[in-house]
């Protein structure tokens, strides 16, 4: 930039240029160029590991999430949750700076743990890392042991920790090690041979829908089976406004979590965000350990209920059978609004498998399925799901693609609606396709995370949002002569 | 300091009581942390600046800080708002993801065509990039950006933590790419671990603008006597548009905005303007000084919050120009006097005597004081996330005696102060918002204008007044206590 | 028309004429003319009495609604329910025709009762009238006694009946006598001196939201107080799809209804649709009989819970206190989307009082409140409610007006949104104002009647619909430069 | 009659078995009711019409009938669809309310300005109107209608039950109002208690059109050889537009439509056309006959459901005209052959061998048979809500031997038959829809096209095929049985 050439004049982009490019980015030619991208990622549909770890931490009783790394990281994770839930997200960091790069972060961790323990009176501090300590290779195991030895925290105070490098996987991959570490820290040594506490460990996986957690608990109550719902954020991120701020509302009771290895059975409801945790269960208990699909739609919910029924030798409660029937009723009544409609869906792999399953149940076509960080196994699993239905034929699975890819796909091979988080809204604006908001994050609408998307009521909710979005669209876009009272 | 129906919002606020509160607050800490935090908070005495607040220090580990990082300062504040460039968050996925669309720096244009601010570009570092370095990928990214966005006027490369740790040479990549692609490609080493807050990110970014941009363009049209630049307005919710509007109404030509709705070539030609007007002193005073030194451009601070400060600023700005501009300024002030009075007449009776605690970044902890006062309110506590001494020097005189001034507060301090001082409004960020609402305290996000705005200039004040009123007087507060 | 004048030519209305009138009907001048209407009713917001009676009938166990009158009436009531609930609405009529006008409808009633009893095996037949027998003065008391005497129905078979003339009041006024008759028929003689069965009679009033009924039951379960929810249509009009059709799913158990006079207390949740029934309770039992406002919004829900708590000397359950806090939280978080927004609302009087109360809680302005058949007492009650809040200032109450009046009002003195049933959609189309659908009937969207609008969750639901409608509108109508990720 | 994967949908259907089913169904009734119902249902024998179904009788009291009333026939079918008139439901509030917007007779124009079909006008009788009579109010209503809707081309007064019982003289009111307002004001004594079904409402309405409308206008342009009227198309979901389109493609001029999207002055001039084409025979054959008698206009029935019947009808219609029209008809048929074949190729494999039970009104129980057959399906049971003998005479030959033909079925009969015959689709009305869906049986509303349409003509068939397929093959049916 310091060359000695004559200084150029300020130029303005002409309207013609803008119009030309505006058209061009909707073309097949542009799509080809766009899909060929190798380096640049544009509008990705995923965040980084520590976010998942922090979600887990918020889900345990009295637990303070603790970011070992730069303070800005913690601010980012916290505000991401603030915006989605419109709730506090108390978490601290140990504010590593340049000197950390040189000397490592042990001193920051010491001081941080001591202050956090003193100021915020947590029952547990859950430590996870952001990039910096991962790059420089901080040894958390040693550091935390040293912190105990040096009295920065009491010897018996639980400090689970997880390595959650942001340059590997996504937020769902940070969920797993943090959960495993918490369970191992609290109860890794508490397995009692032959003991069966009669309860179910239920592991939702990364899920930012508080309504889902409440629904899981309601289901288990209906079964009358004691349940330890792991990383239960339903109260942490949906607490009453009473005039008194409580930084730790709700969460999985630590005592229950500590007894996890003595449970009657363990079920995970996502497979991609719970792998390590489930391995840990399998390695440490002889009780049944099952990984089921996320129960979105009728069939996947059936699967969960049947499994619970089988594991606990209890019939599915009539209350839930009736709910099922009501969901099927609603779906039948509204099938004509979704039948053969094409959807573009983007999000986390387990969630995608669930929503796709639901759409297929409705005779809808999950036409563009986009998972921004995933692998061939996911692609295969998804393809197998698509193959179970004629409505899955000719549908497309896109892995390791982003929302700018999706924009090109929808511009050249359109769909009737998008389903996904708020980040898809630019596609819907540009292409005039409605967005049904679900998943994480939703920072431009209120309360949606309070409504379950799992289970039978979740199916009704999804159906309501989708069908009524189409009906709204008809009423807005139809000609006067087709504007009608009934739909 | 109990809350009463007092008309005098300062009643009961004394230096002694405030200092007592400070001490009680510090009691929460360990000795070590107490020693670190003590210099960052004090009861104000506008006449005696001996009470100087310590600032721009490392955040105490383990407290709940509101601060961001250097990257946040570079991406969110300085570079991100420049609309016609592709800003690459260089490193892992998260930093770009979390800062995507969350700062409301609005722009004019067609997204993905000639403007790109609402988009998120990242190199999405993977393990292999950490191990083998990301320079090659970065070069590919520059090429792809130019190919897919042919109207881009440049590329900024905003480094995240790992880049600075693994020894990548983004300067070399940028230099080559700039040459090949024939657009500015600006490397910005704003790794999050640098410095103590987003403040260093502003500075680093300013340096890169100085080194790579300033002076590389000249305006196509001849320079006029009334050409100015608007520095440090990030167009949150349209602020810069509101500010620009009245500056132009008084006859000035706003040739460049730094950086809200900014155009890089206009920024590059800013060295030609006659005056730099600086709103957010914190983030950009350095650049004003650079341009003064290098190009002899005078600069001045101003304040466009609330009609009192706006009128004062318009007159001060006009004083830099000839009589025509001075007359124009009076006309503009006259034109807006009645509409602003109507706003005050509507809202002041509902807000008279209400108190505010402010804790934000940039210019707002002092600049918004006058706007509250226009509504009959008092700021009884004010603090900055990432200020420097010069910010505090400008703040003491604006705050009443005995009010609380503080720096880089941790959340637990804020809780303590709110509990004791019971302000009628807390004006802070999203991380604090729901904490204080849970405590039953009205709140407005004052970084993002709580998704409203603009708040600047005459267009902004009616919106500001409405928003403050609805926050404080929303009937939902009457529902908080259950009758059972 | 038989005059001997020259036959005129077919004429076409010109585009100019259309444009002129199209503008004219939005003017103040037109509004004045329109508001001055004395005879013609255009697009009314209410139906007729028998519909309310039929709703009540559907709400009791094994009960077959029976229309004494023309068969077309029954078809109309049934299809109105079919379309709103997307559910069966089994009901019969005795198909009176011309000869009924001459001889009265006794023979039709005899034959009808006999056939209905034989074919549909009801546990109770609930008879109500449409216009014809009301005009000719059929004596139901005598007819039904005669039917028993002549063996068309068994002597002890319950046949409550109600006079529900369509030329008097609205659907809500048919609810009342039918409910009273059912309770009197089943249990009018069953009051046992000194007996207190410990339960609460809860009377929702005319309400076509199945979600509300479920919510009432859930509340009572949370209180652990036995409750007889009267005319409980929650299963009747939201039954599972199982492959087997059951004409009588759910409903208030007849045995419970028969014991109503021995309840610990009785609460009605609407005042305008339950007057006669509540008089009957007051006359026949010494237990507390309370008429509360429909519990829409936080305050009115509080009132209900406090009353239950007081009557049964039980604290409000923590579960509901938490729900309250979560509703207040949601309302606080979203207040800025509703604050000072103007609404036009139309519907039944009790429902209007509830929705207005909720809007005032949100700092919103219920600007045009329209009740198509009501009286000065309602107007006064509503004005008192408006007077409790600064946001009620300058709001307008319109009684005995219709939706064509409302169109004029909204055209000349606009609002930000309408809240009401589907019939308002033409106003929203013409004037570009969004419609938030609530109330009865909604025949152009799916599932909305499944979501409670009462109680704390109802407040969240209303809030979600309203706030997100505005946010949708912003995203659709804003300029490109104001299209943002966060809202 | 168990359901199997049979390719021959008629397999197992015999006269004997069907008659046995009829007997079993009748066993549900009391002796008296059995005697009344027995003549209304029978196994079909296309060659022997001795099995004639009794029809147009009073509905048995206490059964669950699908029938409406005379008012419904007048408001919903004949008068309501005429777009440019104000149709007043005269009497209490309900009748007009329930029939408001629920029949999908679409119209072109601007609601409330030049078209009024989507609106609901009523006199909303109160007790005092019953006691003192409603004539005065009615007159006021006419005046107000004309004042508020100056472009209205007329007013129809559709009496509800009370009007006929209290002795009001709506004829006198109408006559005076017509004179004063200078538009047709048509009194229609279609009280709901008249007759046994909506059928009498059609007839009464036809009479009023005959007495007050027909012949009162002439077309402004000269009459042409190809001028026709389309009678008995109510434009449900746009049916009439689809029908009109292909009639015009073959060179005919559709001068008036009775009454879908109808214009009263065009209807008034229908006596000038050269041919009346009648689709819904039931509701309007009487008018065709009147016009034939009085004006010598020939008429013919036709069927626009499904490509086979459409082609047949187009040829039969063309046969009434010259060679040009005949050639045009062939061209139209040729033009649509391939697209229709594509529809069949897509859906027939999914529908082949499926069976249907039809129970609707008007023309559909027989007219839709061919459309199902085009898709490889068979109607195995068909019934009318309000037919007359001539309808059944036209139905027997269309139905296969042993299939069930029935009249004014009660819901319990339908349930019994569906249980026994297990059709793959029930095609009936909204009152039946959810009953059969609860029983796990696919269903389409065939009065309202289930909010879809059009189903008429070439535009309609692809939609019909799609809808039938989605109803039968929706995967939601696979969810009905819980696995636990």
UniProtKB/TrEMBL annotation, chains A, C:
Signal peptide: none annotated. Pfam families: Oxidored_nitro (PF00148). Residues 48-470 form the Nitrogenase/oxidoreductase component domain. Keywords: ATP-binding, Iron, Iron-sulfur, Metal-binding, Nitrogen fixation, Nucleotide-binding, Oxidoreductase. It catalyses: N2 + 8 reduced [2Fe-2S]-[ferredoxin] + 16 ATP + 16 H2O = H2 + 8 oxidized [2Fe-2S]-[ferredoxin] + 2 NH4(+) + 16 ADP + 16 phosphate + 6 H(+). Its EC number is 1.18.6.1. GO terms for molecular function: ATP binding; iron-sulfur cluster binding; metal ion binding; nitrogenase activity. Its cofactor is [8Fe-7S] cluster. PROSITE patterns: NITROGENASE_1_1. InterPro entries: ChlB/BchB/BchZ (IPR050152), Nase/OxRdtase_comp1 (IPR000510), Nase_comp1_CS (IPR000318), Nase_Mo-Fe_CF_bsu (IPR005976). Binds 1 [8Fe-7S] cluster per heterodimer. It comes from the Bacteria. One of its GO terms (cellular component) is molybdenum-iron nitrogenase complex. Tetramer of two alpha and two beta chains. Forms complex with the iron protein (nitrogenase component 2). NCBIfam families: nifK. Belongs to the NifD/NifK/NifE/NifN family. This molybdenum-iron protein is part of the nitrogenase complex that catalyzes the key enzymatic reactions in nitrogen fixation. This is Nitrogenase molybdenum-iron protein beta chain. It comes from Syntrophotalea acetylenivorans.
UniProtKB/TrEMBL annotation, chains B, D:
Pfam families: Oxidored_nitro. Its EC number is 1.18.6.1. Transmembrane segments: none annotated. Residues 69-472 form the Nitrogenase/oxidoreductase component domain. GO terms for cellular component: molybdenum-iron nitrogenase complex. It comes from the Bacteria. Residues 33-53 are annotated as: Disordered. Its cofactor is [8Fe-7S] cluster; [7Fe-Mo-9S-C-homocitryl] cluster. One of its GO terms (molecular function) is nitrogenase activity. It catalyses: N2 + 8 reduced [2Fe-2S]-[ferredoxin] + 16 ATP + 16 H2O = H2 + 8 oxidized [2Fe-2S]-[ferredoxin] + 2 NH4(+) + 16 ADP + 16 phosphate + 6 H(+). The keyword ATP-binding applies. Keywords: ATP-binding, Iron, Iron-sulfur, Metal-binding, Molybdenum, Nitrogen fixation, Nucleotide-binding, Oxidoreductase. This molybdenum-iron protein is part of the nitrogenase complex that catalyzes the key enzymatic reactions in nitrogen fixation. Belongs to the NifD/NifK/NifE/NifN family. Tetramer of two alpha and two beta chains. Forms complex with the iron protein (nitrogenase component 2). This is Nitrogenase protein alpha chain. It comes from Syntrophotalea acetylenivorans. The lineage of its organism: Bacteria, Pseudomonadati, Thermodesulfobacteriota, Desulfuromonadia, Desulfuromonadales.
